[in-house]
Amino acid sequence: MELTLVEIVGYLASIVVLCSFTMKDVKKLRRVNIVGCLLFVVYGFMMPTLRIGMPIIITNAAIMGINVYYSFIAKQS
């Protein structure tokens, strides 16, 4: 079985997000999850049509935004 680049990015994104939830430190969890969400956004854009990838892009961009906010912006307030 040969994997395509799209499948590799999707599996990598899944693994990174899964690993983020094993972290005990919330700061590390958020930062690793940001990477996973970014990979999922890339994966969404790699889908055959944007219509198929849009739910993946929207959801993970929103989660990534929340993680960025709480990791880097909220602590400055």
Please give a structural write-up.
This protein is mainly α and 77 residues long. It has one domain. 79% of the residues lie in helices and 0% in strands. It is built from three helices and no strands. The chain has helices at 5-20, 26-46, 50-73. The chain is flat, with a radius of gyration of 14 Å. The model has no long low-confidence stretch (mean pLDDT 94).
Helices and strands, with pairings:
Elements: H1 5-20, H2 26-46, H3 50-73
SSE ordering = HHH
Oligomer: single chain
| Sheet with the most strands, sense and barrel status | none
What is the radius of gyration computed over CA atoms, rounded to a whole number of angstroms? Answer: 14 Å
Number of domains: 1
**Roughly what is the average pLDDT, rounded to an integer?**
94
Number of DSSP E strands: 0
Helical proportion, percent range: over 70%
Which class best fits the helix and strand makeup?
mainly alpha
Quick rundown:
By secondary structure, the chain is mostly helical. It has helices at residues 5-20, 26-46, 50-73.
Keywords:
single chain; 77 residues; mainly alpha; 3 helices
